Amino acid sequence: MIIHAIKSLRPAMLCAFAVLLSACAAGPQAHDDAFAPSMPEPVAGPQAQNGSIYHSSNNRFLFEDLKARRVGDLITVILDESTNAKKNASTNTSKDSSVDLPGPTIAGLPVTMGGREVLNASLDSESSFSGSGDSSQSNSLSGNITVTVAQVLSNGNLVVRGEKLLTLNNGSEIIRISGIVRSHDVTPENTVESTQIANANITYSGRGAIADSNRQGWLARFFSGPLWPF
Fold this sequence. Notes:
15% helix; two-stranded antiparallel sheet; 46% strand; 10 strands; alpha+beta
């Protein structure tokens, strides 16, 4: 019976082992279609017009700068992110209570037994609480990444997105960014600060030997996770 039970548990154990392996192998994808570069919108060819060398659909104005303003244009985002958060909390409470209840008297005399009053009562209560907490966190990210204009909104703002994949000897680093840029914030050098991107979604992750060495194993994550009751 014991051998039959062990054999029946083998499929479940294999499935659990496969799930653990997939969890350990999980990491950032090399490329994400959501951050794929946007191609320029097709422009219809100019109609044949005798004696004309100008067409408004594909004209490049002589007196405008090279700032991105169309779908598919490139913008260099200067990453300069820095966050610092700190929180302190401290609580101290105390309470003391004391109640005395004198014993009753009968015919002007207290109730005694063996020469001692037996109906006297007193209550004393004392409680205290002390708690404190301290939390601090800081992050920084710097560098450059060139993204494409994915959409031009009706008010002239530009929806941008892009990613950068750096493959090194022992792993890879992936930077993804998306958000909304105001066209006036784009400099003549066609750059914009990451702090000027609205609804910014910046992701920096890596995978490989170095990233794996900085990640806890699945068993350690279980013992330090919310499911561990102790």
